[in-house]
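Subject: sequence -> structure tokens, single chain

Hey, anyone have a minute? Need the predicted structure for the following. Not urgent.
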Amino acid sequence: MTATAETGFRSEITDGVLRLTFDRPKRMNAIDLPTMTAFAAAVREGGADPRVRTIVITGSGRAFCTGADLAAAALNPADPKVVMDAATSLIRAITSAPVPVIAAVNGPAAGVGVSIALAADLTYAASSAYFLLSFVNIGLMPDGGASALVPAAIGRARAAEMALLGERVSAEDAERFGLVSRTVADDAFDALVDSVVDRTSKAPRRALELTKRALNAATLDRLDAALELENTGQAELLTGDDFKEGAMAMLQKRAPHFK
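Reply:
Had a minute. Here:
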């Protein structure tokens, strides 16, 4: 067993399984730019490591990943293009990994956290989890491929409700809609994930790689186009007055007043 630590997350390889755990529990595992960049590199390196047969992504504490860390962004604003390129790189690392990627959604997934969960090949949710495309609430649009990943899972109508209304989807509804593979009670969650990991880590690696490639080609054929549109649109919105007001309102815990 080997264990390493990176900015904002933990990385551990045990018996052919690479576990990547968002580890900013005081921030509900909101991720800043350095974390996003390092996380993408860890996924790519894991996929290239012949020892790794499965990658598991989860969060520490009560949350899976609640999206971008607005407080960190306010203190250290980055070029919007750099931010969007980092998000795109992470999603592409997950979808192109040659081994199964399992998202163990142990708690709330919001913003790009939803994209990370849905970019995985197998997504499981604890009953206390929920999914929230919160972008519109702060003057932004979905990114990280969410405009392709969400409708690919649940269809355009329900995806539009999530994206345009910014309403949360419970773990139970996520299973009913087809957003996740399965939702289970919190006390049974770890056992379920472990059972799936046991199966994928013992399956023939090349067969799984080619199966994943075929599934993605059939269902995520519009992902690249969606990422390009998101990157252009979000780069514009990140410099707009609506985002400034939305972010400030969220940090101040008040209702935003958009123009």
